[in-house]
Design goal:
Elements (H helix, E strand, L loop, with lengths): L1 E5 L2 E6 L1 H10 L8 E3 L1 H22 L3 H4 L12 H18 L3 E3 L2
Antiparallel strand pairs: 1-2, 1-4, 3-4
Helix pairs in contact: 2-4
Protein backbone atom coordinates (compact mmCIF):
# COMPACT_ATOMS: atom_id res chain seq x y z
CA UNK A 1 0.00 0.00 0.00
CA UNK A 2 1.30 3.43 -0.96
CA UNK A 3 0.33 6.66 0.78
CA UNK A 4 1.03 9.76 -1.32
CA UNK A 5 1.11 13.02 0.62
CA UNK A 6 1.09 16.66 -0.37
CA UNK A 7 0.38 19.85 1.52
CA UNK A 8 -1.87 20.85 -1.39
CA UNK A 9 -4.39 18.02 -1.04
CA UNK A 10 -5.54 15.16 1.14
CA UNK A 11 -3.55 11.91 1.30
CA UNK A 12 -3.99 9.46 -1.55
CA UNK A 13 -3.84 5.73 -0.81
CA UNK A 14 -3.20 3.23 -3.62
CA UNK A 15 -2.63 -0.49 -3.71
CA UNK A 16 0.91 -1.53 -4.53
CA UNK A 17 0.33 -2.78 -8.10
CA UNK A 18 -1.47 0.28 -9.49
CA UNK A 19 0.82 2.68 -7.59
CA UNK A 20 3.97 1.04 -8.95
CA UNK A 21 2.55 1.06 -12.48
CA UNK A 22 1.82 4.78 -12.23
CA UNK A 23 5.24 5.51 -10.75
CA UNK A 24 6.85 3.58 -13.59
CA UNK A 25 4.91 5.57 -16.18
CA UNK A 26 6.17 8.85 -14.74
CA UNK A 27 9.74 7.59 -14.51
CA UNK A 28 9.96 7.18 -10.76
CA UNK A 29 11.49 4.14 -9.11
CA UNK A 30 8.87 2.33 -7.02
CA UNK A 31 10.04 1.84 -3.48
CA UNK A 32 9.45 2.58 0.15
CA UNK A 33 10.19 6.31 -0.20
CA UNK A 34 10.15 8.91 -2.91
CA UNK A 35 9.39 12.43 -3.99
CA UNK A 36 7.95 14.16 -7.03
CA UNK A 37 9.17 17.73 -7.22
CA UNK A 38 6.95 20.46 -8.70
CA UNK A 39 9.44 20.89 -11.56
CA UNK A 40 8.72 17.29 -12.65
CA UNK A 41 4.92 17.38 -12.32
CA UNK A 42 3.93 18.76 -15.72
CA UNK A 43 6.00 16.06 -17.43
CA UNK A 44 4.48 13.41 -15.14
CA UNK A 45 0.94 14.57 -15.94
CA UNK A 46 1.71 14.48 -19.68
CA UNK A 47 3.23 10.99 -19.40
CA UNK A 48 0.17 9.70 -17.56
CA UNK A 49 -2.18 11.22 -20.13
CA UNK A 50 -0.21 9.64 -22.98
CA UNK A 51 -0.29 6.26 -21.21
CA UNK A 52 -4.05 6.56 -20.62
CA UNK A 53 -4.61 7.44 -24.28
CA UNK A 54 -2.53 4.44 -25.40
CA UNK A 55 -4.31 2.13 -22.96
CA UNK A 56 -7.70 3.23 -24.29
CA UNK A 57 -6.53 2.84 -27.88
CA UNK A 58 -5.38 -0.72 -27.15
CA UNK A 59 -8.62 -1.53 -25.36
CA UNK A 60 -10.66 -0.06 -28.18
CA UNK A 61 -12.01 2.52 -25.75
CA UNK A 62 -14.62 4.78 -27.17
CA UNK A 63 -16.33 7.95 -26.11
CA UNK A 64 -17.78 6.36 -22.97
CA UNK A 65 -14.29 5.56 -21.66
CA UNK A 66 -13.09 9.07 -22.46
CA UNK A 67 -15.96 10.47 -20.39
CA UNK A 68 -14.97 8.30 -17.43
CA UNK A 69 -17.88 5.88 -17.62
CA UNK A 70 -17.74 3.00 -15.16
CA UNK A 71 -16.79 -0.36 -16.63
CA UNK A 72 -19.55 -2.90 -17.19
CA UNK A 73 -19.72 -5.83 -14.79
CA UNK A 74 -16.73 -8.10 -15.27
CA UNK A 75 -14.52 -5.46 -16.90
CA UNK A 76 -11.21 -4.45 -15.38
CA UNK A 77 -10.63 -1.02 -13.92
CA UNK A 78 -8.97 1.13 -16.57
CA UNK A 79 -5.74 3.04 -16.30
CA UNK A 80 -7.75 6.27 -16.66
CA UNK A 81 -9.73 5.38 -13.53
CA UNK A 82 -6.60 4.43 -11.60
CA UNK A 83 -4.59 7.48 -12.68
CA UNK A 84 -7.28 10.16 -12.31
CA UNK A 85 -6.88 10.74 -8.52
CA UNK A 86 -3.10 10.79 -8.89
CA UNK A 87 -3.25 13.31 -11.74
CA UNK A 88 -5.54 15.51 -9.64
CA UNK A 89 -3.05 15.33 -6.76
CA UNK A 90 -0.22 16.30 -9.11
CA UNK A 91 -2.19 19.22 -10.57
CA UNK A 92 -3.07 20.62 -7.15
CA UNK A 93 0.49 20.16 -5.92
CA UNK A 94 1.91 21.85 -9.02
CA UNK A 95 -0.45 24.78 -8.53
CA UNK A 96 0.64 25.07 -4.88
CA UNK A 97 4.33 24.52 -5.79
CA UNK A 98 4.67 21.73 -3.24
CA UNK A 99 6.12 18.21 -3.67
CA UNK A 100 4.31 14.90 -3.50
CA UNK A 101 6.03 12.38 -1.23
CA UNK A 102 5.48 8.81 -0.16
CA UNK A 103 6.93 6.68 2.60
CA UNK A 104 8.25 9.52 4.74
Amino acid sequence: MYKFRSRADSDLFMNQGPAERILGIIGKQPGPQGIIEPADMARAIAALQAAVDEDERLRGGGEAAAQGAAPAAGQAVTLRQRAWPFVQLLKRSLEADTPVVWGV
